[in-house]
Write a structure and sequence with these properties.
The structure holds two protein chains of two kinds.
Chain A (H helix, E strand, L loop, with lengths): L1 H35 L7 H22 L15 H35 L13 H26 L5 H9 L9
Chain B lengths: L2 H18 L3 H16 L4 H13 L6 H13 L3 H13 L7 H12 L5 H18 L4 H12 L1 H4 L4 H10 L3 H7 L1 H21 L13 H7 L4 H16 L4 H18 L5 H35 L1 H11 L4 H18 L2 H18 L4 H16 L6 H10 L3 H24 L2 H11 L2
Helix pairs in contact in B: 1-2, 2-16, 3-16, 4-15, 4-16, 5-6, 5-7, 5-13, 6-7, 6-8, 6-12, 7-8, 7-21, 8-12, 8-21, 8-22, 10-19, 10-20, 11-23, 12-22, 14-15, 16-19, 17-19, 18-20, 19-20, 20-22, 21-22
Classes of the chains: A mainly alpha, B mainly alpha.
């Protein structure tokens, strides 16, 4: 039950991220069309930037669980299972602490931005803290996914990214290179 | 702490983090945090959060998912069949015959794809079985496919170039245009090598019975047309000077969808899969970018890059010596890290030094792209080697050996570009500096 709820959260966050990605394309094409007709989409660059933040941050957890975030596996795959388990716990644990701190300071940044009453400088001024919520939400879901993986490791289960990394060792890499 | 000692401590920390297997983005982020905490009295957490937010909602980054998506849509079409059928009749006369299809097929697909693994896999999918059936020797087939596949990131559009442009704060379009002539140079070098090879080994290239007249050739090329039109569109967009990189990418997505519809490979499933694939790779790069935002901020605060630049400048190195030294560093890095990580890790540190030595940031961008190409051909984790291992069932040493001549030709291309940097800088300055 908990497992399914968690997976649904990652999948939902990922679906939202894909929607933001599609929005970038739609906004950009709309802007080109508008320019050809001699007008413009107000603050299109700002909104495309927010969509970018939405796609990246909300997609983090989904990408983590899919085993696509890259890490150096050459040491991990050559050490005995016991050592590997310790290292995997250290990796996930350190990541939990790092993202936890980031979530804390993102809240801090958002509160500061509200206090200073910061707005974007475009045709449509937007209070900066609103798009910042995308970063907060995305990082929070990532924190959840990392903590979930850490707990799985503690309970001697294999987090999905390790399963996927094994599978991907036998398929064409979906990298950027 | 003294700068050199601190730099060394940070380097060791980074290597430890990377080695233990933590996600690369976090390794960069934590190294940046350590640098700020040990070296300055600045508030680490606030700086990290602000740096990450500032770099992530930048609209120039939106070019990244657009070109990833465009490439992924095309990867799922049957454009690879069109490439082989359309190019083969035109190249059958050349010494080396259909081996040139590997080179020109990759070069052409590179102009719509920003990834070298996708380029390599797309062209190999058809060319490998076809060339094998016709009796071409396997090593040169494998070598030319792995080698020419790397053109995917040198000939624009290029994901690696977008990442570099963002890190080095140069225009993505300038970077793209800077890759065109070097891409052609490498294409010519590869093709020339195949001609030379076939002159030395005349018995090894099978006869090509397929001889078509002009009408027949044109008919065979009709499957190539969608791809060529897309290439022309992308290049025209880059040269127009009015469209931004993101706009070209977004229109490229639309164009790729039209091509897919035309080839009847477009359906809801491939649409969704391609969008998710573009998303996950964007996020993968995004996490590394997040780490490098913090690391770059830390580097700016600590002044390590400036000190390094001054130190190198004080040695009065011959610029060619500097490039040769960097070549060695990147070749070593490339055996362990993949391109995005390598670029984001090194650009903020090395760029001041390079510019100080008199090189153009665009030139360094192309240099680093070729270094990434070499890393995709280096054991043990080279992606293009891996693609051909999977597709041929051969082991890595066999594939790496077959690829060696093309690896060396890429190194030769770097040497040529170091002597004639105009190959990189002339076109972007000519076309885009109006």
């Amino acid at each position: 039950m908990i497992r399914r709820t968690l997976d649904a959260i990652y999948a939902g966050s990922g679906a939202l991220a894909v929607a933001f990605l599609v929005m970038i394309a739609v906004l950009t094409v709309a802007q080109v069309c508008a320019r050809l007709m001699g007008t413009l989409v107000p603050s299109a660059d700002d909104f495309a930037g927010f969509c970018m933040a939405g796609a990246v941050f909300l997609g983090f957890a989904y990408t983590l669980r899919a085993g696509i975030h890259i890490r150096v596996l050459s040491v991990l795959s050559h050490v005995p299972p016991g050592v590997r388990r310790v290292l995997e716990l250290a990796c996930a644990g350190l990541a939990v602490v790092t993202v936890g701190e980031l979530v804390y300071y993102t809240v801090d940044m958002i509160l500061t931005s509200r206090q200073l009453n910061e707005y974007t400088i475009g045709l449509i001024p937007v209070p900066k803290w609103i798009p910042m919520l995308l970063m907060l939400t995305g990082l929070s879901v990532l924190l959840l996914a990392l903590a979930d993986s850490f707990v799985q490791l503690v309970r001697r289960k294999t987090p999905s990214y390790m399963v996927r990394e094994e599978e991907q060792a036998n398929s064409i890499p979906a990298g950027a290179e | 702490m003294e700068l050199p000692i601190l730099s060394l401590v940070l380097l060791v920390l980074l290597l430890l983090l990377l080695g233990m297997g933590i996600w690369i983005g976090f390794a960069l982020l934590l190294t940046g945090v350590a640098a700020i905490a040990w070296f300055t009295s600045a508030p680490v957490g606030k700086i990290a959060a602000t740096a990450i937010w500032g770099d992530s909602n930048d609209w120039t980054l939106t070019a990244l998912p657009m070109f990833l998506w465009m490439g992924d849509i095309l990867f799922r079409t049957r454009v690879s069949e069109g490439l082989f059928k359309g190019l083969a009749p035109w190249l059958a006369w050349a010494p080396g015959r259909l081996l040139h299809v590997n080179i020109f097929g990759c070069a052409l697909f590179s102009a719509v794809s920003g990834s070298s693994t996708a380029t390599c896999a797309t062209v190999s999918r058809i060319a490998l079985p076809e060339l094998k059936r016709r009796g071409y020797p396997e090593p040169i087939t494998i070598g030319s496919l792995a080698g020419a596949g790397t053109l995917g990131i040198l000939i624009p559009p290029s994901i690696i170039m977008i990442v570099y442009a963002v890190a080095a704060e140069v225009s993505i379009l300038h970077m793209f245009v800077a890759g065109i002539l070097p891409g052609l140079l490498v294409t010519v070098l590869f093709s020339g090598y195949i001609m030379l090879w076939s002159a030395v080994n005349p018995g090894k290239v099978p006869q090509e019975p397929l001889r078509l007249n002009l009408a027949g050739k044109l008919r065979a090329s009709k499957d190539l047309l969608p791809c060529v039109l897309l290439v022309v569109g992308v290049i025209a967009g880059m040269f127009s000077g009015v469209a931004t990189a993101t706009e070209i990418g977004a229109l490229g997505v639309v164009g790729a969808l039209i091509v897919a519809a035309f080839m009847r490979t477009l359906n809801w499933k491939t649409f969704v899969e391609s969008a998710y694939s573009a998303l996950t790779v964007t996020c993968m790069i995004g996490l590394i970018l997040m780490g490098s935002s913090v690391l770059s901020a830390a580097m700016a605060l600590t002044g390590i890059p400036r000190a390094l630049a001054e130190w190198v400048a004080a040695m009065h190195l011959n610029p060619y010596m500097l490039i040769a030294a960097l070549c060695v560093v990147y070749l070593i890095l490339g055996t362990a890290l993949e391109g995005v990580a390598m670029i984001l890790l090194t650009t903020s540190i090395a760029l001041p030094m390079i510019v100080g030595a008199g090189f153009d940031p665009l030139w360094f961008g192309v240099f680093i792209v070729v270094m990434t190409e070499l890393s995709t051909l280096s054991p043990p984790v080279g992606f293009n080697l891996f693609v051909l291992q999977l597709m041929t069932g051969r082991d890595q040493m066999y594939v790496a050996r077959a690829t060696t001549p093309f690896f060396l030709l890429l190194v030769a291309a770097v040497a040529i570009m170091a002597v004639f940097p105009e190959i990189v800088t002339w076109l972007p300055h000519k076309i885009l500096s109006r």
